[in-house]
Description:
The chain is of the alpha+beta class. The chain has three helices and three strands. Helix content is 46%, strand content 20%.
Amino acid sequence: xNRIAVAGNxxxxxxxxxxxxxxxxxxxxxxxxxxxxxxxxxxxxxxxLGGLVFLFENKGENWKVSDDKIDDCLTFIEQNQ
Length: 81
């Protein structure tokens, strides 16, 4: 089994992956901002930013889910904490 955990050593690979996908990265206020074409992704850290890149590149502008899927997610979280 391979395992990756969030730690300082994952930040450089995520940073470079975002750049390799063609995003420009900058710091703005207390956030990290990645821009490409007409999209701006804003996060508090590089791992979050990588998640937003993944979400947008896979779902596009239709990234939101239905209320049923939101409820399913919240139920899962509640039952597993």
